[in-house]
Specification:
The protein has 758 residues and is α+β, with helices and mostly antiparallel strands. It has a domain of 255 residues: Alpha/Beta hydrolase fold, catalytic domain (Rossmann fold). Helix content is 16%, strand content 33%. The chain is built from twelve helices and 42 strands. The strands form eight sheets. Strands 11, 12, 13, 14, 15, 16, 17 and 18 form an eight-stranded antiparallel beta sheet that branches. A hairpin with a 2-residue loop joins strand 8 and strand 9. Helix 6 packs across helix 7. The longest helix has 25 residues. It is globular, with a radius of gyration of 28 Å. The protein starts with a strand and ends in a 16-residue tail after the last helix.
């Protein structure tokens, strides 16, 4: 099926206006719009660019909705043989004609798209049953072809897909004979028994061994015409496969597990090797090391760079050792700061003659041969007002850098170009809109990006190199123009410690100035950028303000951050006359659910709270999810939980951050939503809070979805998704109405300028 839509070209200054205008069809007033419902939430389409031809003409993309990712069997998490469902439309966009071609007449499960070097053929995998199969598509013939491999082995479900430089073959990975049966039995032995033995004398946690099965693969080449398969190596753990420019050599990283490591370092050895196809020999170009390596290869594939402990190294496949190019440049940062400069690797210059590296001083050009270094863009590490800049591409001649731009105190975002010889920055596009997903054609003449006005879903756009002309390539959700959507506003406020924080406020769809509305805060960590948000649109259509406030989380004492930051942000909105202080709700998912439960042990300000898949006891949580092995220990000691120490070093901090120990202080009615198949935060952890609050005669409701995983009903079936959100909205409505009733005066009036929805 082919969809033909001609592109329209607009000047960059009008870009945001055009998209906004598209939101209201002629003759349709705001009052005539339909509410945005849970059914609508399932149907919002998103586009994922998979690959673009070097000349920028053809784009391979997938279009999917939340509905397409339902019905996952969460109980099989950790099973190396299980492939979770995720379906999509497969599209090829012709940027010259504006034609969109659907490769299949139905949604399919696909992965690993790669255009051939000359851009004439697209290779990708399509799932059929429990296997993936290689397919190709030729735009010139408008033909999809299944490549039946001349092999009894199956394609690994996590296989890479890489074209050989001549375009005649692809590199992929296969499963060894018997792999599926062995892996499945290993999983069942730990999942079902009948007898399960864990033994600390063994180097690995048992689940580490099972999960490690997914990494075992046989690299091979497949001729796309003859379908012949050539196995390159025996079964191994291989990543970062990279053919040389002439196709004679294939480099890769081989991983050798050593033991289960609890500090996120060590635990495995990594070696960079090169396979010489002509000589059928393999040799090492970086010996085994417990330091994880991410080799950054130059354009021809005959040399790679990497960073290690503040230095940048370069190693040619012809050298016997790597060269440290930055050791002599590790001088003190300044006269006042005697800390040595630490260099990080960013990318090769297009001509391979130099590397772009970063340090505390800014960006440098590092000569790949001599090691000479030049500061090309200075930054001030302690300048909190400086915008966030991130390099996304070089100009073809290597004379300019393209960087994303984002101001830190307002919504001003876009793309800038930095001229290296002139040391001059110029704006390509910069405004309050949201720009993401930057990609460039090989010659730099075409720039691709996702665009949103900040409140509506993304669409894909293309611009020329100076942004004097832009082309809208997709219109994914025209039906949303008939629905009521929220609008967002960036809120700046001070937390209790006087630190400047930001939050995103989402307005009720029927907002009337001068009226105070209920507010529901969705909490996690820090929030700044807006963009289309399903959760906030459902809350806004229920008649609530949605608010995503930030918290400053300090290692060792993170639990204080939400009380200091969330409540301060809400106070500012109350002071502005927007929010009814008696009708406040708060919820979060995962780490946000954990934060919610901690927060309501410290304050009684909220009329209702909801913990979605969030832990309540950080001590029992340490070993509460065996399928993710030692992740929970690492999260507490060095990760997101920010305890910053082991349980035995700082037991009091684990006690202070376990909401279950302070359940007697909770006065806020609490709804808890969990999933039976949640491998991340098992429902057994939240069950502790239900029984505690029940024992304490507090108001608590626990809803457990038997088909769900992490995220409760949102991660389950379509029916559970609706139920999940109906319960959330119903919980808030019930307790906001109670708050109304409790402040009814003697003569029956309701104070506060309440705006009540029927």
């Amino acid at each position: 099926m082919r969809l033909s839509t001609g592109p329209f070209r607009i000047g960059v200054a009008l870009l945001g206006c055009v998209v906004l205008a598209a939101g209201l069809p002629s003759g349709l007033s705001a009052q005539d719009k339909q509410p945005f419902t849970t059914e609508d939430a399932l149907n919002v389409a998103t586009l994922r660019v998979q690959d673009i031809t070097d000349d920028g003409r053809y784009i391979a993309a997938t279009r999917a909705t939340d509905r397409d990712r339902k019905n996952v069997d969460h109980m099989r998490f950790g099973d190396p043989t299980y492939i979770s469902p995720s379906y999509a439309d497969v599209l090829v966009l012709d940027t010259e004609t504006g034609t969109q071609t659907s490769l299949f007449d139905r949604k399919v499960q696909v992965r690993s798209f790669q255009w051939s070097p000359d851009g004439t053929m697209l290779a990708f995998f399509v799932r059929d049953g429990d296997e993936y199969f290689l397919h190709t598509y030729e735009p010139a013939r408008d033909r999809v072809r299944k490549i039946d491999l001349k092999s009894d082995l199956t394609i690994a479900s996590n296989s890479p897909l890489i074209w050989q430089p001549d375009g005649g073959a692809v590199i992929l990975t296969l499963r060894a004979e018997g792999w599926a049966e062995t892996s499945r039995q290993m999983y069942l032995a730990l999942e079902e028994g009948p007898t399960i033995v864990q033994d600390s004398r063994k180097p690995f946690l048992a689940w580490d061994v099972v999960r490690g099965q997914s990494a075992l693969m046989i690299p091979a080449t497949v001729n796309t015409n003859s379908r012949d398969v050539q196995e390159l190596l025996p079964e191994t753990r291989i990543t970062r496969i990279r053919p040389s420019d002439d196709g004679r050599l294939i480099s890769y990283v081989e991983t050798t597990p050593v033991k289960t490591a609890y500090d996120r370092r060590g635990g495995a050895e990594y070696e960079v090797l090169v396979l010489d196809l002509a000589a059928d020999t393999t040799y090492s170009v970086r010996e085994k090391s417990t330091t994880r390596i991410n080799p950054n290869w130059n354009s021809t594939g005959d040399a790679f760079a990497y960073a290690d402990e503040g230095n940048v190294f370069v190693r040619s496949i012809r050298d016997t050792v790597a060269r440290n190019l930055t050791e002599e440049h590790r001088t003190p940062v300044s006269e006042d700061d005697t800390t040595k400069l630490r260099y990080g690797l960013m990318s090769w210059r297009p001509d391979d003659g130099a590397l772009l590296v970063s340090s505390q001083k800014g960006y440098h050009l590092l000569d790949a041969e001599s090691g000479d270094i030049q500061l090309v863009y200075a930054t001030t590490e302690d300048d909190e007002s400086a915008p966030d800049l991130s390099v996304v591409n070089w100009s073809r001649d290597g004379g300019s850098l393209y960087m994303t731009y984002s101001a830190k105190d307002r919504w001003e975002r876009g793309l800038v170009r930095y001229d290296l010889p002139a040391e001059r920055m110029s704006d390509l596009v910069k405004d309050a809109s949201r720009y993401t997903g930057w990609r460039f054609s090989e010659d730099g003449e075409k720039i691709f990006y996702n665009f949103s006005d900040g409140d509506r879903p993304n669409d894909l756009y293309m611009a020329n190199r100076d942004f004097s002309e832009t082309t809208r390539l997709t219109d994914l959700n025209p039906w949303l123009a008939e629905h009521s959507l929220t609008r967002s506003e960036l809120i700046e406020y001070l937390d209790v410690d006087g630190k400047t924080l930001y939050g995103i406020l989402y307005y009720p769809v029927d907002h009337e100035p001068g009226k105070r509305y209920p507010l529901v805060a969705e909490i996690y960590e820090e929030f700044f950028h807006n963009g289309f948000n399903t959760n906030m649109n459902l809350l806004a259509n229920a008649g609530f303000f949605g608010f995503r406030p930030s918290a400053n989380l300090e290692t060792g004492f993170p639990g204080e951050g939400w009380l200091k930051g969330v409540t301060a942000g809400i106070n500012k909105l109350i002071e502005r006359g927007l929010v009814d202080e008696d009708r406040l709700g708060v919820h979060g998912t995962s780490y946000g659910g954990y934060a919610t439960n901690l927060l309501i042990t410290q304050t009684k300000r909220f009329a209702a709270a909801i913990n979605i898949s969030g832990k309540v006891n950080i001590i029992s949580f340490l070993g509460d999810s065996p399928k993710i092995t030692n992740r929970n220990y690492a999260a507490a000691e060095v990760g997101q939980d920010r305890i910053g120490a082991t349980l035995w070093e700082q037991p009091q901090k684990y006690l202070a951050h376990s909401a279950i120990l302070y359940a007697d202080r909770i006065e806020t009615p609490l709804l808890m939503l969990t999933g039976e198949g949640d491998w991340n935060v098992p429902a057994t952890n939240q069950r502790e809070m239900y029984y505690a609050l029940r024992r304490l005669e507090k108001e608590v409701v626990w809803v457990h979805y038997m088909n769900a995983g992490h995220g409760a009903g949102r991660s389950s079936t379509v029916e559970d998704f609706h139920d999940h959100w109906n319960r959330i909205i119903g919980w808030y409505n019930e307790h906001f109405e109670k708050a109304d009733e409790e402040r009814v005066t003697a003569d029956g009036d309701i104070s506060g300028g309440v705006n009540r929805r029927p």
